[in-house]
DNA sequence: TCTTTCTTTTGACAATTGTCAAAAAAGGAA
DNA sequence: TTCCTTTTTTGACAATTGTCAAAAGAAAGA
């Protein structure tokens, strides 16, 4: 819970009242490795904060698993499209290591928004920061070679390489596992 | 102005008071074709609503212009990274057709947020919708071939093809102009 | 320890896409 | 119209990346 408070403060400090209301609405979730937090076809009604562990989001395309994000400590996690639109998504969220999360339902969050303006501001700000990250990823995907994307990942998130199988990283980078393996051997 | 009101209502209706405060803070901007709304190296301090015309965002990479978005009627326009972080960006926003915009400064917008909770909610919701769009684009970029991305663009935004030069569309799709030309001839 | 399973690497080849250069087509201005 | 500029297409070739199959290596369980 402390990790969440610290994480929030980096984005936008909130009032004590808002924090207390938030903590009351949060549920602690412990999930074991290889379980699923979200499965395709379901509505993801919860937003999570990942305190410990790691997850990945992927979907199935032509029989292949396509990874499009990883979540690590202090990340906010949800099946974004589904959570926002309240419709079933195509996304699976798989637990890659035993993890501890704090979850809040969409309804509870929106109630809190009504009561605590500063909480809604916090979420707006977090959204904006996540948008910027996504934009950077899109640019890399659009205009950089596989090797450049890999080297960028090495710089910004070296921890990914220690914790995630190569095939999933390759998928995340938008290349085949064989290509990534060859890139690594040619550094 | 009416177009903006209608556009806003589709995302989240706001109170009359909020709308009136917003309209007071807006400035009408007319920009001619080939002018620039934002140039790289400057802080983009304004958020715009595009009422009429069309724009593109691009940056320079190794001497090439890299287009990463187009804006059309009823789109919100800004150099997002710069606007949010209040730092200089690498982005240029070029006017592709004579355009009419409504602009608001970052300061004015944040003042409005303090006074009108529902306006901040509106922006949160718009941000979320734009996030989802970006996510879709990233997925296409990550896991679809050039041809598939082009066909997807044909379906979702056929108007782009009538209004934008091929080279810029190719850049937007992350492929060379020659490749796009060949894809088109082989449909 | 020895299996068994999962992950990573390597080889051979094919498909996709990029680059450079030139030609063709289209659009604007006088 | 004609000239000039911009945009689009085409050709030839190279570079990048993907696919399939097999081998090698690492990790996990009995």
Automatic annotation (TrEMBL), chains A, B:
The keyword Kinase applies. Keywords: Kinase, Transferase. One of its GO terms (molecular function) is kinase activity. Pfam families: cNMP_binding. Residues 29-116 form the Cyclic nucleotide-binding domain. The keyword Ribonucleoprotein does not apply. SUPFAM superfamilies: cAMP-binding domain-like. This is cAMP-binding domain of CRP or a regulatory subunit of cAMP-dependent protein kinases. It comes from Pontibacter lucknowensis. The lineage of its organism: Bacteria, Pseudomonadati, Bacteroidota, Cytophagia, Cytophagales.
């Amino acid at each position: 819970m402390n990790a969440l408070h610290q994480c929030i403060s980096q984005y936008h400090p909130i009032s004590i009242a808002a924090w207390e209301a938030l903590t009351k609405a949060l549920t602690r979730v412990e999930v074991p490795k290889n379980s699923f937090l979200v499965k395709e076809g379901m509505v993801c009604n919860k937003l999570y904060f990942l305190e410990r562990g790691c997850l990945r989001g992927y979907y199935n395309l032509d029989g292949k698993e396509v990874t499009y994000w990883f979540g690590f400590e202090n990340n906010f996690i949800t099946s974004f499209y589904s959570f926002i639109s309240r419709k079933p998504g195509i996304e699976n969220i798989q637990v890659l290591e035993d993890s501890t999360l704090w979850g809040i339902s969409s309804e509870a969050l929106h109630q809190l928004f009504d009561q605590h303006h500063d909480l809604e501001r916090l979420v707006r700000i977090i959204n904006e920061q996540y948008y910027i990250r996504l934009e950077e990823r899109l640019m890399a995907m659009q205009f950089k070679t596989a090797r450049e994307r890999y080297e960028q990942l090495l710089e910004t998130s070296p921890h990914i390489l220690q914790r995630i199988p190569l095939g999933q990283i390759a998928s995340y980078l938008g290349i085949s596992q064989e290509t990534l393996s060859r890139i690594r051997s040619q550094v």
